[in-house]
Amino acid sequence: MQSKFYRNSYQDSPGNTEIERLVAKLDALNYGKRSRVTLVTSALSGEGKSTVASLVARSAAYKLNTPTLLVDFDIRRPTLHRIFQVKKERGMVDIMGLNLTIKNCLKQTSIPNLALLTSGVSDQNPNALMKTDKVKVFIKTVSLYFENIIIDSPPVIPVSDPLIIGKLVDNVILVIKAGDTAKSVIKRAIDMFGDIGVKVSGIVMNNVESVMPYQYDYRYYGYKYSANGHR
Q: Does residue 119 fall inside a structural domain?
């Protein structure tokens, strides 16, 4: 999946279509709720969760036409500021540790309806910042202003942050890297959420093009996408 978010255009592609299906399913799961909060995580690092979180947020903002917030809760290894090509200063750690208001930390993106909260910069211990009561207040506050909140969190096996956040959200999406993430690792990640009473809502398989058989490609069915959206 490519991570280019500097243009307003939204192009048809097999990858975008799959993300749109995921967003539609999440929307159906939470039908009737004013605000929906989705946590995107992975078992280990390097599985593409930040790119998936960005694509989900973009699709929610564009296709559902609703105010959407993308949050970088991966304060140990933040990525979203690079994907969106903005400064990471004034973000989550400033809200959690310095009590700055969310309004003062929001960054607008080039995508209509999509706002971004970067990680911010702090010398404080991340464990001291990630307190359940603080996260709960944060989610409750942003839910007053945004109908869709997408949270990019650290991977669940090496860091406990996703388990703290997972108990406070509506959906948990687990990103795995096809051909790389072992089944035992996936099971462990799912079990970790299950141990605290949180059900993983869905799994996104990344890197499919590199490892899956040719028949999984849209071109196999004669269904080719072009840049202008015509098929």
A: yes
Instruction: Let me know: does 61 contact 148? Beta carbons within 8 Å.
Output: yes
- Supply the pTM of this predicted model: 0.84
Query: Which of these, 57, 59, 72, 51, lies nearest to 10 by C-alpha position?
Result: 59
Instruction: Give domain status of residue 207, yes or no.
Output: yes
Beta strand pairing call for 148-152 and 68-72: parallel
The model's pLDDT over 61-106, given as tens digits with 9 standing for 90+, comes to: 988 899 999 999 998 899 999 999 999 989 998 888 877 889 889 9
Residue 26 host element (H or E):
helix 14-29
Domain with 153, as residue range(s), is: 14-22+34-221
Tell me whether residue 27 is in a domain. Answer: no
pLDDT at residue 130 is higher than 60: yes
- Other beta carbons within 10 angstroms of residue 103's beta carbon come to 8
pLDDT in tens, 180-217: 889 999 999 999 999 999 999 999 988 655 444 444 44
Residue 142 is classified by DSSP as H
Q: H or E stretch including 186?
A: helix 183-194
Give the number of domains in the chain. 1
Please list, residue by residue across 142-178, b when 16 or more beta carbons sit within 10 angstroms of its beta carbon and e when fewer do: bbeebbbbbbbbbbbbebebbbbbbbbbbbbbbbbbb
Q: In CATH, what number is assigned to the domain containing residue 119?
A: 3.40.50.300
